[in-house]
Design goal:
- This protein is mainly beta.
- The longest helix has 9 residues.
- The chain is globular.
Amino acid sequence: MRRGRLPSIGAAIAALKTLPVSGNAFIDVTGVCTENIVIQNFVVLTLSGHPGSVIASPNSNPAIRIDDSNNISVTNFSIRGGGPVILVRRATAVTIGSCNVGNPSVKGPTSGIRFEQGSGLW
């Protein structure tokens, strides 16, 4: 994908789905993104944040939902909001690195990462 600025991570994901992408798909993020990100049916995708980058859910839905995907990497973010903050379903080889995940004022099963239906963290 050509380098350029898009208004959201969701817009970048939608743009990638329209292109014949070979190899790794990479989204480079700076700043605060207030949205519910859905990563679905990707083979390889990396979301990489710069220092201070934040992904925040604007509602009770997960900030990031990963469905039916493989080799997904999310690195260098503060991720908060939603319940759970990250939901992973039917996905393999999910890597979450150098991220602060959670809602500091919330304790329990809705405050972090939930794996369902054969998913796992690498």
